[in-house]
Amino acid sequence: MDRFRMIFQYFQSNSESVMNGICGLLALASVKIYTCLDFSCPCLPHYNMAYGLGIMFVPPIALFLCGLILNRQSLVMLEEWRRPQGHRRKDLAVIRYMCCSIMQRAMVAPAVWIVVTLLDGKCLICAFSGSVDPKKFVGFANATLAQAQEMLSRVPCKEDELMRNSTSRRAVSRYLRCWSQALGWSILLILIIAVFLARWLAPCFNQAALLQTRHWSNYIDIEQKIFEETCCEHSRLFAHQCILHFFESMRKEIRQHSFDLPREKEGEEDLLQGITDRDQVNKLLKMWYYEKPPLDVSQVTHRHPLGQERSPPPCAGSCGARSKFTQHTHM
Amino acid sequence: MDKFRMVFQFLQSNQESFMSGICGIMALASAQLYSAFDFNCPCLPRYNLAYGLGVLLVPPLILFLLGFVLNNNVSMLAEEWRRPQGQRQKDAAVLRYMFCSMVQRAMIAPAVWVSVTLLDGKCITCAFCTSLPVEALGNASHRGLPQGEVKRVLARIPCKEIYDGQELIANEVAVRYLRCISQALGWCFVLLMTTLAFLVRSLRPCFTQAVFLKSRYWSHYIDIERKLFDETCAEHAKSFAKVCIQQFFQGMSKDLTATHCHPPRKAPTDAGEASEKLLGITDWDTMNIALKSWHRCKPPLHLHPDAPHSSNGWPPAPRREAVVYYSGV
């Protein structure tokens, strides 16, 4: 449990870690989807190649797009790219850096899918069983071309009646699987070498510029997050003020219409804000629906701690409509 | 349990991850629902198509509507749309933004259901087994059967135990063919959905970023304002109820003293705070009368601003007033 918590906290620690976490999850998801998928080769002459290659290449495209969608930084990069220049210059190096890092992370899940597919072998067997040279295999050497094609296209289906106990089928299957796994391991090796070289040789080229671009790309990301948080906080305060202002204006209106002067007590009745009647409450709720207050809290009343209203202290000319004289009533 | 709590904490840490979390949960729920569903093809000529397409299309519709029903923001959108203008203008861009984000979220579970159904293959196999190209896959002229009979035989393909057309077309061949078509359709659908989602998400910063920022802020504002108003009203109702009930007990206590002509038994003087809380009701009979009165005759929803010594609070007796003037100098 502790370990789980540590892993979670590590991944939340900064946005790069979050993105790495999402990338890892997507890679795991791609393996899981592959294992859950019920691969059933059609074992028909022209359909095999379409199906096999389709299963090998279409899901990686979908996974790549998912990787781009789920990555928050892709939106940040696009906004930075398309924004008007304004007072802040645009640095193309930063945008390029962000684009590269996004693409690298999005390519992990498709690469995992392709490698797993090749190492498993079923896709390649399905796609290329019809392209194998029948003369190399004993069982197919004597058949006519059309028959050989027909039989070869049934090789991927182990349970097929014709091919169930055929040793030639197993031979073709092993041959294709061997090729498939060789291809899979080679691709994996090439990818790992490429990544290794990229990381190892990067410091040899322009490390200072790299540090700068990385710093500024992080900065843009953090700035956007903080802007969103500040907007949320601001809208909460705005709403709070707006509602208080609304209750105040309702209380004033009620006072104007009813001529009694209720005593303002501290404590519970202060919280009632002068609304102490079923009709008054109904009126308040109706006003809230029919006439929402304007989005303007610049005329907020200042409240004395005991709940009595006082005018704001006189200030030179900037108090606007506030009168300098006010009345108070005591019981 | 701890794991769930941590997952929830992580998801709630910011708006974006919360939304992604909700989407992920809905997708998983939809996939789980499909695997729990017991698919039973009827294996009869016209029923197959109806059943197969029904399972493919009706649950997504239900899930889509459910996505709207379970979304709290639907009532917020409706309220904002239908409210009278009053002193606050209505912004169509905000309404559009709210509607679009709700539709996007509601589309996830149906899309996952359709994808999983197509990738699994049982639905399409059931629905389209009677439309198989028998000439290409099997031997149509084998028994010279009439069209109706051929359809009846083909309709039993999904039900392996009762399938009797092995010479017409092998069951495995037919199932493989139909499943291949179904999976191809499924992956194409998945690709289409992810492409659409990608386009929607990536074209927005290129064209309407300023409008988007505005709409997002104000839709969030409307949501928060509504919640804060509800909270304020709840607090007001609590205070209202407290004062109303206090006044009821006080009124009750005074009435009893007035009508029963015996002073209430005084609580012991050293009880202090506890005796104040008793509000003058200190014996069995009095309490019973109070409870009966609460049931039979609830007090009006009108708090009287009473002084502690007046016998009834409304209308208030005229009060002495003192007026203070503040100089603005």
Question: Could you explain how this protein is built, in words?
Answer:
The complex is a heterodimer of chains A (331) and B (329). Chain A has 331 residues and is mainly alpha-helical. Chain A folds into two domains: 14-204, no CATH class; 220-295 and 302-310 and 317-328, no CATH class. Helix content of chain A is 66%, strand content 2%. In chain A, α2 runs antiparallel to α3, α3 (47-70) packs antiparallel against α6 (108-120) and α5 (92-106) crosses α11 (207-257). The longest helix of chain A has 51 residues, at 207-257. The model of chain A is unreliable at 301-331 (pLDDT under 50). Helices cover 67% and strands 2% of the residues of chain B. Chain B has 13 helices and one strand. Chain B has helices spanning 2-12, 15-36, 45-69, 73-82, 92-106, 108-120, 122-128, 134-137, 147-154, 171-207, 209-260, 273-277, 284-296; one strand at 322-326. Chain B is elongated, with a radius of gyration of 36 Å. The model of chain B is unreliable at 307-329 (pLDDT under 50). Classes of the chains: A mainly alpha (331), B mainly alpha (329). At the A-B interface, α1, α3, α4, α11 and α12 of A face α1, α2, α10, α11 and β1 of B. β1 (326-330) of chain A pairs antiparallel with β1 of chain B, so a sheet runs across the interface.
